TrEMBL record:
The lineage of its organism: Eukaryota, Fungi, Dikarya, Ascomycota, Pezizomycotina. This is WLM-domain-containing protein. InterPro entries: WLM_dom. GO terms for molecular function: proteasome binding. Residues 116-315 form the WLM domain. Residues 311-322 have a biased composition (Basic and acidic residues). It comes from Ophiobolus disseminans. Residues 311-331 are annotated as: Disordered. It holds the Pfam family WLM.
Amino acid sequence: MADAVEITLVHHGEQHTLSFAHDATISDLSSRVARDLSIPPANQKFLVASRLGLQKPPFKAPDMPITDLVSKKITLMGSTSAQVAALNASISAALGPRRAGPVKAATPARSRDHRRMQDEAQYTFHTLRPLPHLPNPDRSLRFLERLRDDAGIKAAMRTHNFSVPLLTEMDPAMHTTQDSRTLGLNRNKGEVIELRLRTDAYDGYRDYKTIRNTLCHELAHNVWGPHDRNFWDLCKKIEREVARDDWKSGGRSVGDVEYYEPGERDLHDDGGWTGGDFVLGSGSASVEGNAGGAAPMGSLSRRDIIARAAEERLKRTKQAERDADESGSAT
C-alpha cells in the first residue's frame, strides 16, 4: 500500500503496528482494534502523548485524520471480549446460582439532613430541670427527656420556631386547691414552662398523653396569652400536628412508673403566666400574677407555698378524724 500510514499502539506492554490508508480516520482505528485485537469500542481508551490526550469512543471528532496520530506514542487501555467474559464467569461462580447475573450498582448512602439537625438544636427545650427536693428526680428527668425527644413535639417546635430555655416540673403542692389542679404554666411567652408531672401524693406520674397535650397548650401561650379564639385555634393546631407526627407512637410507660388518669378537677392554666421570676438552679420561684388575675397563693415563695399546703392537708386530716370520733360517739 503506497500511501499506507502506520500507527503503533502499546497494549499491556506489547506493541501493535497497524497500517491504514492515508485518508483513514480515528474511527477506522477503533474498528481495526475491535477486529484485530478483540477489544470492543465500549472498552477502548487511547491515551495519546500530545495535546490530544485521552480519546475514547464515541469520539468528539470521529473524522479526525489518522495522520494526526503518526509518530505519537499511543497507549491502548481496555479489556478484550474474552477477558470480560472470563471476569463475568468468575463473578457468577463466586456469587452462586441464585445470585448470578449483572452486579447492581451500590446505592449511595442517604446524606444526613444537616438543616434539620441545626433546627432541632435551636428549636427545643434547652434545659430540663426536675425538682431535686421531690422523690425520685431521675424519673422526672426521664419524663422531661421523653417530652423533649417526642417526635411530634420536635416537629411542632421546628414548625413554629419554639425555643424554650427551661422546661421543668411543677410541684403539686403549689397549684392545688379544693376546687382544681393546675396542670401547667408558661412564663413570659416561653421563658419557662412548668408541667405537673406527678400525682398529688407524689407517689406516681400522670398520663403521658395528658401531659403532652398540656405541653401543647403551654406552647400555644408562647404566641397568645389570654384564652381567646386565636389561642385555642393555635393550641388545637399544635395538638393535631403533634399527634400526626408522633411516628414513634407515644403514650407508653416510662420505666416502672404508674400513671394517673386526669379527673374533672384538672385544668391547664389561667392563661399565660406573665409575672414572677424563676432563677435557674435555685429551685425556688415567686408568682406575682397571671393573665387571669392574681395568683391564688399571692407572692409567697415556693417553700412557703409547700409549707402552707402541708398545713392545710394536716388540718383536713385532723378535722376528718374529729368528725369520725364525733360520729362514733353519737352512735
